[in-house]
């Protein structure tokens, strides 16, 4: 399952990130925010328009907004 499919309020652990699907600069930014293998995340909420972009995530004590395409590159394990 990928992070873009996780329902709001549910937690998961990132088990793999397909870095080759992301632009290098975007990949560096996501790593700097702690979105890497082993990170625990919770979907706080999603955008309300047709694409449901962006996705707000809780990562530790931070709230991070990511694009749906970025979340689709992250394989997760629901907790």
From TrEMBL:
Pfam families: FeoA. Residues 1-78 form the Ferrous iron transporter FeoA-like domain. SUPFAM superfamilies: C-terminal domain of transcriptional repressors. Keywords: Iron. It comes from the Bacteria. This is Ferrous iron transport protein A.
């Amino acid at each position: 399952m990928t992070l873009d499919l996780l329902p709001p309020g549910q937690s998961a652990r990132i088990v793999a990130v397909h870095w080759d699907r992301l632009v290098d600069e975007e990949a560096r930014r996501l790593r700097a925010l702690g979105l890497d293998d082993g990170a625990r995340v919770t979907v706080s909420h999603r955008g309300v328009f047709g694409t449901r972009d962006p996705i707000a995530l809780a990562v530790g004590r931070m709230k991070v907004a990511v694009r749906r395409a970025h979340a689709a590159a992250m394989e997760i394990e629901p907790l």
